[in-house]
Amino acid sequence: MKQLFDSRFAYTVLLWMLLPYAFFHLWWRSLKQRAYLNHIGERFGRYLVKCDKPVIWLHSVSVGETRAIAALVLRLRESYPDHQILLTHTTPTGRDASEQLFGDSVIRVYLPYDYPFAVQRFLHHFRPTVGVLLETEIWYNLIHACHAEAIPLLLLNARLSEKSARRYARFPKLARAGLHELYLIAAQTEEDAMRLASLANRAVPVMGNLKFDIVPPPDMLERGRQLRELFGENRPVFLAASTRESEEALLLEALHHSDIDQLLVVIVPRHPQRFDEVAALVEKRGLHLQRRSANEPISSHTQVVLGDSMGEMFAYFAACDVAFIGGSLLPFGGQNLIEACAVGTPVLIGPHTYNFEQATEQAVAHGAAMQFKHAHDLVQQLNILLHDRAQIRSMGEAGKLFVSNNSGATKHAMAHIALALNHSLYNNVVLVR
Questions:
Q1: Domain ranges of the chain
Q2: Which site among 52, 80, 152, 176 is 20 to 30 Å from 127 CA-CA?
Q3: Catalytic option among 65, 137, 247, 312
Q4: Whole-prediction pTM value?
C-alpha cells in the first residue's frame, strides 16, 4: 500500500509542478479558440450550477465521445427519470456538442484538473451516485477520490492501443493501482480487454463500441440533402473529414493530379481553431474557396469548400459521394469512420488507424472502406469510385450493414451502470443504518 501511495504522491507532485503550464495552455489555446477562457473556475472545482436530484455522471472529453454517448444518455434519461444526468467535458467543442445534442436536459461542466483539492470540490459539489469515464480517461486522483468516498466509478467503452499500453506500462504500480480502484472496466474489443487486463491484473469484459449505436439524426440527414443542393446535385463531391495538421496539404497536392471533372472538395478540419489556417493553405495554392458558414450556393468555379461549422458532420457525410477520414494519413491514430458508414457513405482511410484499429479492419473486411498508404493511392481509388456509381452504392450498403452488425454496446453499458447504481444504493442504506 505504501508503494502505491508513493507512486500517486509522485504523480501529484508532478502535477503541481505543471500547474503554471495549465494556465499557459488555456491562454495559448484561447488565441485560436477564445472559449478556453470561459468557465476557468470549473477546471479547479468551482461550480455555479447546482442539482437537487441524484446525479449520474458521465465524462466525455470532446466531440467524438459526446456524440458516441447520445443513445446512452437517452436510455439513462428514460430509465432513471428521477436522476439528473451530469456531463463533464475537457474541450469547448465537446461542451458545444453536448449543448447541440442534449440542450437543457443535462447539466454540463468541465471536469476539474486532477488535483486532489479540485477533485474533492467536484465530488462534494455534485455528489454523484455513479460516475462513468469513457475510452482512455484514467485520472489517478479522481479515481482514488471516488474509491475513497465509495462512489462507483466505471471505465466504459474502454480502449487501449499498443502505443498507449506501452506508455502506461512505464509506471506499472501507478497504473495498476488506479485501474484496481475503478468499480469496473469494460472494453471495446478483445484486444483492448487483453491490454487492459494485463496492465490492471484484473478481469476486463468486452462490451463493444458505443459509437456503433449512433443513429444519424433525421434533421442532419435533411441538412445533408440541403447541403448537396448548395454543392450542386450533379457535381462529384469528395469529403475530407476531421483532417489534422499537414494532411490537407498532402491531399490537395494529390488531388491536383486527379482527372475528375468538376470535382468539389469539402475539407472539415478536426479542430475549429485551424479553420483560418486551412483557408489560407487553399488560397495559397490558387484554388477558389468558399466557406460553409456563408451558407451560399456553391459557384461552379469553386473547387474547395471549407467546412467551418460545428455539429454538422453527419450532414457532410450525407452530402458527399466519398469520404476520407482524417488523422490517418499521418500518425495521429485516425478518427471515427463509423458515422460515415452509418450514413451509407463509402470510406477511404490512411494507414495510421491505431485509435480505431479493429473498426477499420472490420469496415474494410465488410467492403465498406478501403485503406491506403499514400495520398496518391487514395486519389487513384477516388477516381475509380466516382466513375463507378454501382460500387459507391455497394460500399454504402455494406457500411450500413457493418454498423448494424456491431451495435449493442449501449445495452451492455446500461447493465453495467445499473449494477453500479444498485451497489451505490446498497452502500448508502448501510451507511444510514
A1: 2-208+408-432, 218-405
A2: 176
A3: 65
A4: 0.85
